[in-house]
Amino acid sequence: QVQLVESGGGSVQAGGSLRLSCAASGSTYSGYCMGWFRQAPGKEREGVAVRDPDGSTTYADSVKGRFTVSGDSAKNTLELQMNRLKPEDTAVYYCAADRDCYDFDLAAEYAYWGQGTQVTVSS
Fold it and tell me: Mean pLDDT over residues 50-56, rounded?
């Protein structure tokens, strides 16, 4: 059983920055595809960024140029640096992982999910 443990998040004013971290534990497998998703109240879950084991990263258009993903595929860790935050970035952010990568609209295919961490951006 794989557990994803997230840390970071919190409240910040618009234009500020936050950093989220995610670590996978409970598995000896290295090289998971890992990503960040978010869900705002009353909205569907949406993809933010997905990083495949070779480091290639796909970003949602809404965060390109503001958010940066980094991580260590061998250690199954993933970070999300969020800069120039906007009120519309307010959501619960989830880390997800799977041995395969999926497009944002196939998020339900990811086998493992973190508990989520709240990000609130005030105007």
Answer: 92
